[in-house]
Specification:
Radius of gyration: 18 Å
Number of domains: 1
CATH architecture: 3-Layer(aba) Sandwich
Distance between the termini: 21 Å
Number of strands: 13
Helix content: 25-40%
Low-confidence stretches: none
Order of helices and strands: EEEHEHEEEHHEHEHEHHEEEHH
Length: 292
Amino acid sequence: MGKVCVVGSINQDHVLVVDRRPGAGETVTGATLVTRHGGKGANQAAAAAACGATVTLLARVGADAAGIAERTDLAGRGVDVSLVAEVPGVATGAAFVTVTPDGENAVTIAPGANDVMRADDVRAAAGLIAECDVLVAQLEIPLDAVVEAVDLCHGETHVLVNAAPFRPLPQRLLERIATLVVNESEATALVGSPLVGTAGVRAGAMTLQARGPRTVIVTLGAGGAMVAGAGGCVHVPAPPVRVTDTTGAGDVFVGTLAAVLADGQPLGRAAVTAVDRASASVTYLGARPPIT
């Protein structure tokens, strides 16, 4: 397997398992609270390492118990956390996740130390970034840090950006991206109009691909993924599974995709493997499986 560098976020997830979400002004009792490890950057790094890639995570945590727990978990999964620095006086990022019986989730994030990441921090890791086969970034850290990481990549590095959570992307960033991964809602926001049905998703993916990225992948949950590139658009179906919790499934997709691409495999094969692993991830609670 090749080398993957992930520039991104770390959160501690506080998961509430509920029968239903409360409406405005309503109180719902009987929830179960579970604390898990999370953050898009950390989840993607863990997923890539689980596929056998050599993975380094560049991220920030608070100088607190949560930060220690997150670093320990990632190290136990084979992720190099030497560039995960503690930031005094700032809490580790936290995500508050509500999961209903159908496995769907709603997430609210307090970014904490994730918001401290700056372009200068990324620039300090320029040597590592230059050596990686695949760079992975998401948008739970400041955009200037993401742009700096992409700018530091040489021509042979596969730049994989997961535009989540949504924010507008500068054109010069879009033009540097080899693979852009978004879900349906993010794709809708980037395109600026609803993607209705399979034809709408296909058209939206092609629209985004024409704006700069070599490839655009729209993840579709139980529907698999739509992959748009220079050769056209292909749908990758997902296997049927019993859904427990969809939290982190997109991160498993991205991390797996990065690992397989770093191994020199073609994008089509990487997408199929990513869909399969993401589908398996919704069968357990939380964004990462227990360490065995």
